Amino acid sequence: MQSKALALSALIVSLTLTGCSSSATLACDPSGGGAQVESVEVSNTPLTKPTVTFAFPITADSIQSRVVIEGDGAVFTGKNMIEFEFAGYNGATGELLQQTEFDGKNPSPGFFGPDSVPNFCSALAGAKEGSRVVAIFPPKDAHDGRGVPSLGIGPNDSFVFIFDLSRVYLEQAQGSAVAPEAGLPAVVTTPTGIPGITIPNTEAPSELRIAQLIKGAGETVKSGDNVTMHYSGFLWADGSKFDSSWDKGSPAQFVVAQGQLIEGFLNA
Predict the structure, then answer these.
(1) Element (H, E) at 53
(2) CB 118 within 8 A of CB 142
(3) Which of 4, 8, 122, 177 could crosslink 264 through cysteines, CB 3.0-4.6 Å?
(4) Domain assignment present for 28
């Protein structure tokens, strides 16, 4: 999609709207396969609720996963948002705990870093958009060995999950660089896309100024859209950062609408 920098009197905010591909390194160690996950039978028809068969109780010493359907899209790294369909089972009883519709209409959004519980990061790391993955989570990786009494899940119960990766977002802005405009802060980024700025030795603009720094190839954002984005906010007076989604560990999600965002974001 797009990356834009805003200058709003004493405020500068740089945005990265996420897109659909990535070539970054993995944030967590990918799980391996194993005899247990190989024994789980999963149907391989996309956009249909999976038929799942396994002998229970089933567990493993560590997370095991395998790809049932190989996608050809962007790679999940543990540092990017995803949208996914899922079916979750109690590995001790075979009970279906919860599942989505698997019709592509309303996938669940998620950001799963190395510390996620259940540890979806390791189970899905390296999987591509469009993939179907089956994974077994032993109790320590499923619920820290505490169980979930409200759902009838005991401390020694494992999880079996099937995931369809509907969409994998960009970790950072990608596209064609646009020449910076005079009078606005210079924006530089780390190799992972985190922005920093240098404030010019001038007064802050008296009115909103918007400058595009990277022109993406995605769809144009419209009023009413749900957007997933990284952002950082800085003060013009001293260049100090006062807010950043990167510091919070995951992108932000907003509706582009009056009352949901500040005017600078809406106009950008």
Answers:
(1) strand 52-53
(2) yes
(3) 8
(4) no
Asked if residue 138 lies in contact with residue 158, where contact means CB atoms within 8 angstroms, the answer is yes
Q: Is residue 9 part of a domain?
A: yes
Same domain, 123 and 196: no
* Residue where a domain terminates, one of 134, 168, 202: 168
Element (H, E) at 244: strand 241-244
- How would you write 168-200 as a 3-class SS string? ECCCCCCCEECCCCCCCCEEEECCCCCEEEECC
CB burial of residue 190 (10 Å; 0-12, 13-18, 19+):
exposed
Angle at 143 between CA 137 and CA 145, to 5 degrees: 95
**pLDDT tens for the 268 residues of the chain, in order:** 333 333 333 333 444 444 444 345 899 999 999 999 999 999 999 889 999 999 999 999 999 999 999 999 999 999 899 999 999 999 999 999 999 999 989 999 999 999 999 999 999 999 999 999 999 999 999 999 999 999 899 999 999 999 999 999 988 888 888 888 899 999 998 888 889 999 999 999 988 898 888 888 878 888 888 888 889 999 999 999 999 988 887 888 888 888 888 888 888 7
Distance from C-alpha of 144 to C-alpha of 119, rounded to nearest angstrom? 10
Phi/psi zone of residue 52: left (φ > 0), alpha (ψ -120 to 50 degrees), beta? beta
- Residues 221 and 240: their CA atoms lie apart, in Å, by 29
- Distance, in Å, from the CA atom of 127 to the CA atom of 149, rounded to the nearest integer, reads 31
